[in-house]
Amino acid sequence: MGRVTTDTTPDGSSTGPASARPPRLVRLLWDAYDEVERVAGALPTPGQGRAIGRLNAGSWIVAHVAQQQEAYWCTGAQGLEPDEWLAGLDVGFGSEPSVPDYAESLAAFGRVRARAIPYLRSLRDGDLDSIMESSRGSGGAPTVGDLLVRSVGHLFVHTGELATIASLVGAPDMSPPGRLTHSTG
What we know:
This protein is mainly alpha-helical and about 180 residues long. The protein has one domain: dinb family like domain (Four Helix Bundle (Hemerythrin (Met), subunit A), Up-down Bundle), CATH 1.20.120. It has 6 helices and 2 strands; from the N terminus they run ββαααααα. A two-stranded antiparallel ribbon has the order 1-2. Helix 1 (about 25-40) packs antiparallel against helix 5 (about 100-120). The radius of gyration is 17 Å and the shape is globular.
């Protein structure tokens, strides 16, 4: 009898046999979550709460990506209530520069991630072509797969921005994207 392998989600829980695990695109999103937390968690204080040149403040970036992930996977896909702290922020594309609290931004990202994981864990290849009804007003009728691609790209771009800020304030190279442990197996 062959060996049964299992896969785990970013919260450490098993998704069961590897054959029943979420699509690679979902697992790449989990890698992107890991990278945001790794790089944001190592960002030196000078980059956390102030903009450097034309770059956003680290706290704005983390709150911004948390708000996007919440809109897609928590309030959008699952119909959950919005995170109270995030709901009070204006950190969308084109918003005025602001500097939310860094620790709160990181905590909000963690809350959003924890609330998104059950939904993301449930996805299978056949779900990727499903229309995300809650996102119809945002330029068409994106599919779950469209939003996954958009999410992965968005998170890695902003992780690179955080790593750039870290470098500008004297931190060692963060080397994003780091180890992609969820999607490379």
